[in-house]
Amino acid sequence: MVFVMRGVDVANCRGFSVPDLPRPVVAVNGQDAPTGGTFTLMHELVQVALRQGGICTPLVGIGGTPTEVFCNAVAGATLVPRDALFAHPGVSASSSVTDAVVAQAASTFRTSREVIWRRLLTLGRISQSVYRETRAELHASAVAKARSTGHGPPPAVLAVSDLDRPLVRPVVEGYHQEILTGSDVADYLGVRWKHIPQQKK
C-alpha cells in the first residue's frame, strides 16, 4: 500500500516503509517535489523488497548504512540508466559536468538534479566532495521551495483517497444529475469547489 503523508516537514522526513506481509506499506511526503517523491518511492520499494523498512531522511545518501546506499543506487539506476545517461549530450562529451548539463539531464529523465548528481557520483564521474557540496545546496533550495509553495496531489485527489471511490461516486453522480449543487459536493467531499476539476462543455 502506498500513502502520501501530509503535515510533515520535508526537512525531517521524505518517506518511510514498513515491509510487513501481507500488505507492506510505503509512504512518501506530499510536501516533496514530484521528482523527489518518485525517487523516494523507488528507494522505499527496494527497502520493502529487501524486507527492511526504514525512514528516509534528507541526509540519507551522504553516507548512511550500506542498505540505504544500496537502495539509493537501485533507485537511481532505475530512474536514470547508465547507458542512457552517458548518451545524454554534455554528460558524455564534457570532461567536467556543469549544473546546466545536469539540469538538462534531469529534465530529460524527469527526475531531480540531485538524482543526476548522485548517479554521476555512483558512476565515478564526480568526486564525493563535489557531490556533498552540490547536494547541500540543492537540499537547502528544495526545502525552502517546498515550504513556500507546497507540492503533492491536488485537494480533489486527496479527497477521493481519503473517502474512497464508492463513497465519492454517488456524490459526483448526484451533481451531474442536478440533484446536488456544487456547494453540496464541496461540503460532502470536504474540499473547496474551486479545487474540484470541472467538466469541459
Which residue ranges are poorly predicted, with pLDDT under 50 across at least 5 consecutive positions?
none
> What's the mean pLDDT score?
81
Number of strands: 4
Major sheet summary line: 4 strands, mixed
Write down the overall geometry.
Answer: elongated
N-to-C SSE string, H for helix and E for strand: EEEHEHHHHHHHH
- Output the strand order for the largest sheet: 1-3-2-4
How many helices? The count is: 9
The end-to-end span amounts to 36 Å
Beta-strand content: 5-15%
Helix content: 40-55%
Radius of gyration over alpha carbons? 20 Å
The computed structural class is alpha+beta
Relevant terms:
201 residues, alpha+beta, 9 helices, elongated, 8% strand, four-stranded mixed β-sheet
Descriptive overview:
The chain is elongated. The chain has helices at 34-49, 66-79, 82-86, 99-109, 113-122, 128-149, 155-163, 165-176, 182-189, and strands spanning 2-5, 15-18, 25-29, 54-56. Strand 2 and strand 3 form a beta hairpin. The two termini are 36 Å apart. It has 201 residues and is an alpha+beta fold. A 4-stranded mixed sheet has the order 1-3-2-4. The longest helix has 22 residues, at 128-149. The mean pLDDT is 81. The chain contains 9 helices and 4 strands; from the N terminus they run E-E-E-H-E-H-H-H-H-H-H-H-H.
